[in-house]
Amino acid sequence: MSSSTVEKKATPEDYPRFMQTAYEQALKSRSEGGIPIGAALIHLPTSRVLSRGHNNRVQLSSNVRHGEMDCLENLGRVPEGLLRECAMFTTLSPCIMCSATCILYKIPLVVLAENQNFLGGEQLLRDNGVEVVNLNDENITKMMKDWIDSPQGSVWNEDIGEVSK
Amino acid sequence: MSSSTVEKKATPEDYPRFMQTAYEQALKSRSEGGIPIGAALIHLPTSRVLSRGHNNRVQLSSNVRHGEMDCLENLGRVPEGLLRECAMFTTLSPCIMCSATCILYKIPLVVLAENQNFLGGEQLLRDNGVEVVNLNDENITKMMKDWIDSPQGSVWNEDIGEVSK
């Protein structure tokens, strides 16, 4: 929930605050020994945080629970069409799986912290009418790069369908 | 596992047998009150069934567990690159989320039973080098149509991101 007691329509000046929620999920995953990618689903008409999630590959031995997917799983079923009023915030450019999931549910806005460490399905999103905003967050970019370069980062290729050299 | 005791490379003549495994998953889901879409992941060099799954929207209140995704979740983590040797069998044309997931993991072959009840991301699969085979299975097509037309089928629009009229 927003700390505000009055619900209001989300605007771009709210985006850093929502991204902070996603970032906290990334840090939570890292603290659990997992991949530090987090997500938050925001209901745009009210600015409410409907759901949070983080990559759970390591924690749940999951092939599917990237941050954005975990966020949608934590949400559970919602009324038809509700996701059309939501934005997906994610600390990293969403891979093609997560991008396509946003397209399936007609999520109109995806906000990412950075795409320097990985460039996902941003063009597919745009080709399907989804607005994509990159906050170019230097702090989150550094966090992810440091993790990829660390011993724990050896799981990274598996997460994006690549094979280590 | 294959009923054969000798592992052998899968060929198109094996496809109906693998689809039967996916179909049994669809029937299992229907018997649980769920959406009757099933999937099976086949290791092509050995013809082994590595994993089975079915739509779990109703059963798990899930936005993500379409049949193909559930199959990958039931698999759990596997060595890097193993999925590049596998085929995804599914009783219905895979939606854009499931198609993109196959692309992410570089699954080279998707075999579907039918696309009369729903046409998913088949073109996206082909555009990304994935072979797509449609078995045009009349029995499975009728099963899915009968379900969509039944009272239980009211959940169908939610599963594909649509809104009921």
UniProtKB/TrEMBL annotation, chains A, B:
Function: Catalyzes the hydrolytic deamination of cytosine to uracil or 5-methylcytosine to thymine. Is involved in the pyrimidine salvage pathway, which allows the cell to utilize cytosine for pyrimidine nucleotide synthesis.
One example GO MF annotation: cytosine deaminase activity
Catalysed conversion reaction: cytosine + H2O + H(+) = uracil + NH4(+)
Keyword tags: Cytoplasm, Hydrolase, Metal-binding, Nucleus, Zinc
Stretches assigned to the CMP/dCMP-type deaminase domain: 13-132
Pathway note: Pyrimidine metabolism; UMP biosynthesis via salvage pathway; uracil from cytosine: step 1/1
Organism: Kwoniella shandongensis
One Pfam short name: dCMP_cyt_deam_1
Name the record gives this protein: Cytosine deaminase
Cell location: Cytoplasm; Nucleus
Record note on quaternary structure: Homodimer.
Class of enzymatic activity (EC top level): hydrolase
Gene3D superfamilies referenced in this protein's UniProt entry, alphabetically: Cytidine Deaminase, domain 2
Cofactor: Zn(2+)
Family, per entry: Belongs to the cytidine and deoxycytidylate deaminase family.
InterPro entries xrefs: CMP_dCMP_dom, Cytidine_deaminase-like
